[in-house]
Amino acid sequence: KLILLDSLLQELSRARLEMPHKSQRKAHNNSDINVESMKNLLSNGGGIKMSKGSENDTNSEVDNSALNSSMQSEASDFDQDDIMEEGEEVVSRDLGEFMKFKIVSKDKALIILNHESGFYFKGKLQIKILKGKLEILGHTFGQSGSFVSVYSPRGYSLLEVHGYRDDADVDISDKLLAEGVAFDESKLIVGDCVFVTKKLSENWTKFLQKNLNVKTKLNLLHRDLNVPEELQNDEEVTKVEKVLDVNLLHPANNYSRLFKTGENWDLALTSVEIAQKNGVAPKILVAGGKGVGKSTFLRWLTNKLLVKSPVVFLDLDPGQAELGVPGYLSVGIISQPFLGPNFCQVDRSTELSVYLGDINVSNCPGRFMKITKKLIDFVRVEARFQNLPVVVNTMGWCRGVGLMLVIDTIRYLQPTTLVQLHSRFHRKNYPYSLDHNTVANSRDCWDSTTCSSHHLSYSLLEFLAVPESVSAKDMRSKDYWGLPDPRTTREAVLLSYLGKTGWPSPVYRIPLASLTLGVLHTTVDPASMLAVFNLALVDLCEVEEKHTRKPTNKSVYSVMGGSLPIVPSLGLGLVRNIDMTAGVLYLATSIHTSVLDRVNCLMVGSTRLPDSVLLSHRMKGSPYLASGSANPLDNAWQRHHKPRGNL
Fold first, then answer.
1. How far, CA to CA in Å, does 419 sit from each of 364, 436, 530?
2. Which residue, of 27, 72, 466, 528, has the fewest CB within 10 Å?
3. What pTM does this model have?
């Protein structure tokens, strides 16, 4: 086995992965997939030995924080070398070449796929496999008696449903009858992969779509009617699209951003196998700039690893969190595949979650590192995590303080594999390759306690990112179903969380004297604390008395002391009202009362309730809402307003 793997590495070293543009080659020194560390792992009889290291963001996702801007180049987002070569033609082909359709009812259709063929879709679907196998986002499904929900929304790489034949040739006529197919027709249906698709309708998606459309007309999960000619299908396929409320796309169509696996992604799986064979628990950290496909790669990798065991998912990206709402860092055990972006699984349970309090880490780098270390230590000591693969999601801030924090994270985590994704746009990339020698010796660190001697030895795999769009010429380009701006995607996560947990949530009456209040993202005078908390999203937690400052009036709330402790989150709530006369606070939350009994502290941060929730529920007495005014001085301030010339 070791000989076969060594041959694979030699072949990859010969097939050098070159950067496609001069600026990239210069930035990364013609770097390719790093196989030297893998070879080192196989040396000395194939055992892994930790060698002693040396001493010592509309559609643009560019981070506009002051710190990041000051450390980034002031050059334009793309050079002449970054422009793609034109001349590729948009391809439109017939889906009927390799698949057949049959409408079974008003919300259900039967699809037959040829072996090793597939299609893409935009929208949401329920799928039940009757014959053969399907692969979606790296996870393979076999025959099942239940439906699986799959989400392929606008703004994310559209998912492919890829079919394969099964070894056993079984009679599925009884299954077809159970799905509503006529008896005579059920005997005539043959094919390599046969499955039932059903229109997916859920209350949380209705809630999400309703509230998104208050301010932004964005069709995330439903069929688009007026699509370009290149995306239109024939009459038969269009009927199926109407039944399922989706858009179906031929895989040869390059007018949209489609999910495709990278050429060498399987190397990450190989590195996991190497670690496991040598008795080492694999830890895979994925790093890269914004919009290079970290989240997509992590979902694919997690789904692949689920074939053998559950996966420990360490989420260290507070801006686009995979397991929770924005502002949280968390760790969870994944046992079911990711079949959609983060807002589709925001209600997954986590083993430990801590509220950072801000999506802009430049405002709280010290707190970020404290939480990161707490989560890593938790993964190390928990018995149920032992021998399970760990995958780590990092933020996309790759310059300045962001680079320092990822260096500190790598040093403290000590991964077995580091996957670095490179974009053809140099400003989306780290300034250098994150190999173990560079990381060990780098002076780019925030936490001085991690800048001493390091024992790092891991395999570095460098992959090119999947292009944002085939026709993209710069970072701001978008395809037909382009990526929404980061603020909209964060609002989608919050709205999905509220929809999944049942908005409006039950309201509880809590005495102010039993609570400690704290603010994470700014400094607030204790006397003005209630103004910050009214109608705010708050983290519910439990703190020890030594971290609090008690008031002289025992009927009033306490406040946090000088240093804010790192404590586990017990849930999320909304302060609906505060009655100072009665000395009570009204809290809306979906957590169980047994957990709520433990809560003695509310922490507020930059995470806020989307405006659309209030704007879409206009009613008498709604807080902070007023009727429209004809006075032009009441209009919102326009930063770029220019007075007319005749004034």
1. 26, 12, 45
2. 528
3. 0.82
